[in-house]
Amino acid sequence: MGKTLEQVFDGEELLKITKDLVAIDSSTTCPARERNVAEYLLELFKKEGIRAWVQEVKDGRGNVIAVLKGDGRGKSLMLNGHMDTVPVTGMEDPFRGKTEDGWLWGRGTADMKGGLAAMAYALILLKRMEVVLHGDLVFAGVIEEEAATSAGSRHIAAHGPITDYAIVGEPTDLYPVTAHKGIDYFEVRFQGKAAHSSQPDNGVNAVYGAAEYIRLVREELAAEYKKRRHPLTGAPTVNAGLIRGSAGANEKFLKGEADTFAGIVPDQCTVWLDIRWTPCETVEGILKELRELAERTKQKIPGLQVEVHYMDLPRPAMEIGENEELTEAVREQVARYDPERAVLTGVSYFADSGILKGIGGIPSMILGPGDIAVAHGMDERIEISQICGAARIYAGTALAVCGKQKEGIM
After folding, report:
1. Residue numbers annotated as active site
2. Please, which residues have CB within 8 angstroms of residue 129's CB and are 6 or more apart in sequence?
3. What are phi and psi of 159, to 5 degrees?
4. Are 165 and 400 spatial neighbours (Cβ–Cβ below 8 Å)?
5. Percent of the chain clearing pLDDT 90 (strictly above)
6. CB contact set of 57 (below 8 Å; sequence gap of 6+)
7. Can you tell me the distance from the alpha carbon of 292 to that of 208, in angstroms, rounded to the nearest whole number?
8. What is the pLDDT of residues 359-379, one digit of tens each?
9. Overall pTM surpassing 0.85 (yes/no)
């Protein structure tokens, strides 16, 4: 006879797991990176009799994969969370895990060791309840999300395990997020003609070309983007994040190797654009519009050559339908925790759910404890009650998606 969730749930135990994870430095500047967190999670799962292993990804580092195996008659669900954090610069006692007035303080509490602990604990709860799932429940603790490459989730998207659904545990204040923006980078190269700066009309100034292109981006493309509001994520945005241009002879000045620059019309310039796009957009469509602006810039400045290149590290936008089985299950479980939070929403930031959905083909959503507003900050913290709520929501969702829903699970 199986046990109920209330019989096996222990909030103090879950808090200890979270504090243990926070106490382990897994920041992007830590020499061990995520390895020590991975070892901790492996031991935690093995102690509970849950099959777990490290899926090597790069540099001797890997994802922690744990599975509660189903009987093959149901859908599978992945609980995905990153093990790394941003650096701790300027923080006081970042790994202490201080608790005060119902809050846990420290680096990674919100982003996202609170969510990671709750996901791991959801597997532990179902194991202790002796639940026989119909579909597999997979835990994936992934590497290198904060380093901006999302190497761990990219590896899963390419090599598995591929599940029917996935939840990414980024901090959403326990609101179900069914859509977020993608983020991609584009390189725009301008080639002009060098000439003596005393006779600039003999040359083609690549910096002027870049300035004209940026003007079109600001005044026309950005204005057009504002008209394309997605109901959950808002409008796409564009940002000229980096520019570099000069004549070849001026490179020494740019590098600090010369006291002054030569009087030459610059023949080369490059602009890098950061575009946050909605589920309504595509990379192909974005490229088409950027290249149309390039043609107009060339017409404005005769002799100028302009090329637009996509920087191939895709970070796709994500959206999942409100009638999907996962969406309905999550919303029901959130409503049991707090009816006011059972509202589908969207966010402007990117998460690994975009990779799981856009590259791996796994319908995904985001739901996790904590407030994104304090993530990466010097006062990062999380409500302890939300960590407990998240574990209950994950466990209840797994029962709904992978197995037979149990009465009184919450």
Report:
1. 84, 145
2. 2, 3, 4, 5, 7, 8
3. -120, -5
4. no
5. 91
6. 63, 143, 144, 151, 152, 155
7. 18
8. 999 999 999 999 999 999 999
9. yes
